[in-house]
Amino acid sequence: MNSRCPHSGCRLSCLVRLRVGAFFIACNKCFEALPATLQESEEGTTMATQEKIAAVSELKELFEASNAVILTEYRGLTVAQLKELRRALGAETEYAVVKNTLAAIAAKEAGIDAFEGHLQGPSALAFIKGDLIDAAKGLRDFAKANPQLIVKNGYYEGAALSEDDVKRYADLESREVLLSKVAGGAKATIARIAQVVDALRVKLEEQEGAAPAAAEEASEEA
Fold first, then answer.
1. Quick check: 27 and 12 in contact, CB under 8 A?
2. Residues with Cβ within 8 Å of residue 74, at least 6 apart in sequence
3. Is the pTM above the cut of 0.70?
4. Tell me, what's the pLDDT at 52?
5. Residue 128 contacts residue 70 (beta carbons within 8 Å)
């Protein structure tokens, strides 16, 4: 799109705007003069700063790198509480406070429509690269102690999750617990098999010992 740069102080009479994704930005020299200003194009499209473009790109990468994402509202939580929540979620989940408009654009560019209409109010996204069940449990347990945290909805492996879906995942046993149970069951099965084998071995040994004795007794009688 070509139109005169709206920055009245621009000495370059900038005529070019570069379209980047969903945004319009002025030329670099004009942009440097207004590093934090949003401007309106002739169509009413909001022009964004380079920082916002970078933020959308980063959020898009997080969406694409995560196997699950959960949307929450954190209204009323303190900085200290947010730090506590991040620690509770662990290293495989990144909990990020987001701008709703930028998050909506990033989700759309990543091909995710699960959050349309849900990005309202103070929003934070839990980008989960590990086990969804563990992250859902972490959010549930934190919300019990801090009811200001509200789980709104989510996304998992191509499908949208409702608030109730997230709660159901939180109630499931984690992968580690299930593996532990399977391992415990396998050990018990192996132990039972070993007992049966030992019993058979003892029985066979007794039978083998009884056979020569019976033969010797029969020979003496003859």
1. yes
2. 82, 97, 122, 123, 124, 148, 149
3. no
4. 87
5. yes
Is-contact 56 105, C-beta < 8 A? yes
pLDDT at 20 over 60: no
Six-digit token pair at 29?
A: 């020299």
Strand intervals (E) in 67-201: 68-73, 93-98, 123-128, 150-156, 159-161
Q: 87 and 55 in contact (C-beta within 8 Å)?
A: no
- Given CATH 3.30.70.1730, say whether it is the number of domain 52-172: yes
**Cross-strand partners of 156:** 68, 159
b/e map of 90-100 (b: 16 or more CB within 10 Å)? eeebbbeebee
Could you state, in order of their start, the residue ranges of all structural domains in the chain?
52-172, 173-205
For the ranges 44-48, 74-78, 163-167, 212-216, the lowest mean pLDDT is seen at: 44-48
pLDDT value, residue 39: 37
Reading the block at residue 76, the tokens are 């009323």
Listed in sequence order, the residues at least 6 apart from 17 whose beta carbon sits closer than 8 Å to its beta carbon are 1, 2, 3, 5, 24, 25, 26, 27, 41, 47
Inform me whether the pLDDT recorded for 205 exceeds 60. yes
Sign of torsion over alpha carbons 194, 200, 204, 205: positive
